[in-house]
Amino acid sequence: MDDRKNYKKMAFMTIMFSLMGYAGFGQGQITVEEAIRITLERNLQVKQATLNKDLAAQDVYQAKSNLYPDLSIGVNQRFNNGFAFDQVSGTVITGNEWTRTSSASVSSNVTIFQGFQKINQIKANKLLLESSATQIEKIKYDLMLSVLVNYLEAITNSELTIASQQQILLSKEQVKNDSIQFQVGNKTLADLSQSKNQVATDELNLVNARNAYESSLLTLKQLMEMSPQAELKLVKPEVEAVDYVLGQYSAVNVFEKAKSFNPEVKKAQLDKEVALKQIDIAKGGYYPSLSLGVSYGTNYSSKGRNLITGDYLPFGDQFNQNKSFGAGLTLSVPIFDNNKNRINVSKAKINLELAETSQQLLETNLNKTVNQAVLDLSAAAQRYQSSLAAFSSATDAFQVIKERYDIGMANGIELFTAQTNRNKAEFDLIQAKYNMIFKDKIIDYYVGNPIKFDVK
Questions:
Q1: Do 124 and 92 reside in the same domain of the chain?
Q2: Domain, as residue range, for 346
Q3: pLDDT for residue 354 is more than 60
Q4: 87 and 153 together in one domain
Q5: CA spacing 20 to 30 A to 46: which of 212, 338, 402, 428?
């Protein structure tokens, strides 16, 4: 009975050690919050989306600038040899002679009215800027989930590795005992072979668990833009009370919070508002447009003469005498434009319907996802409770079979089966624990709560 108590105590200490978090934060350890923060700081997709937002900000600036008048300065100088008509002096030039003309002008144009298209374009570009900012949040949102998944996957595989190592130690101890019993004739060769087979099975489990751990840890490092050779120790979370986990969430409340927070839904709402503004912009094409233009200029010709004396006029005199100023209003009324405006309005309305449909589809899918997540959390919590009970029962059953095996009342196959069942129950418990933690944190993810673990 003492051996049974000692074995049972050792088995439970092993599994509880794997289920407990680290006692402190040592050098090289990283929490899930830190992993998320590092990922968001270094990720190139976030940087790319930020640059796209900067481009959208420039579009807003350009749309506002389009309301202002433009201003341009023009300077021209021309040399001509032979026949030409000099517009400055108003004479015909003949013969093999060089002439030179110069001109300078300043002009400005401004649109006074254009069916409010420019105003609506500013509003549309502002909405697109908000949409770009929401796209950044969506990328961060998706990255948070990826970090959470790989973080917990790495911890799960780490715990499975620890459990596999402990199972190998137990199996090797059994081989030693069976070897002694075989030498004195209390065990058969088949019993000894079965014990060695158990060691081989446990070693295979260790290899699989270790490979899975290294793979998930590598994926996490890649998300964090870290070197594959970097040392990384993950802080393990504690298990919250199952009753608390089961009672804290309502699917309806979770959906309402998720809908108000979800970046993708926000982006869909903004895209719908942009589509509405695009309709207003398209309708602006039906209105007349009015613009104002002003200009000021002067010119010079090497053939310019004084009309009274006939003397050539110097450069400065011509530039002063030839000054001109002009201003004009231009009104354009669309009568028929090959149905371009009509088609633009129709296409804008179709785009609005597409945006509304996309928003409805996103909200419907989010509702389904949230409801499924709440159900999954409940199932995961119940599975964890069942796994705790199953591990306890499998440990007791294995110890009973081992005691019977030690006195010759059970064979090696029975012992192998009992130990395999106990090992499987231990693996199931580890996976059930972290699955419940993940399902709990996925709700926080949907409603926008900070992703963090309770640790010792």
A1: no
A2: 2-67+115-287+338-447
A3: yes
A4: no
A5: 212
Query: Mean pLDDT across the chain, nearest whole number?
Result: 86
Say if 456 falls within a structural domain.
no
Name, of 5-14, 57-66, 299-308, the range with top average pLDDT: 57-66
What is the model's pLDDT at position 247? 61
Cα–Cα dist 283/112, whole Å = 17
- CA-CA distance, 46 to 51, in Å (whole number)? 9
Q: Which residues contact 168 (CB under 8 A, 6 or more apart)?
A: 199, 202, 203, 206
Long-range contacts of 139-143 (CB under 8 A, 24+ apart): 139/43, 139/45, 139/46, 139/49, 140/40, 140/46, 140/263, 141/262, 141/263, 141/264, 141/445, 143/36, 143/39, 143/40, 143/43, 143/45, 143/46, 143/223
Considering the domain architecture, whether residues 372 and 242 belong to the same structural domain is answered as yes
Q: Which of 40, 38, 44, 41 is nearest to 230 (CA)?
A: 38
Contact 373, 439 (CB under 8 A): yes
- Structurally, the chain folds into a number of domains equal to 2
Taking only the tens place, the pLDDT of each residue in 205-229 is 899 999 999 999 999 999 998 888 8
The reply to whether 135 and 88 lie within a common domain is no
Q: Kindly state the tokens that stand for 367.
A: 């509702």
Minimum mean pLDDT range among 5-14, 144-153, 293-302, 408-417: 5-14
Contact of 264 with 445, CB cutoff 8 Å: no
CATH of residue 25's domain is: 1.20.1600.10
Neighbours of 195 (CB within 10 A): 26
CA distances from 349 to 150, 281, 360 (A): 43, 11, 17
Of 47-51, 117-121, 167-171, 267-271, least confident by mean pLDDT is: 167-171
Asked whether residue 105 falls in the same domain as residue 171, the answer is no
Taking the complete model, does pTM exceed 0.85, yes or no? Answer: no
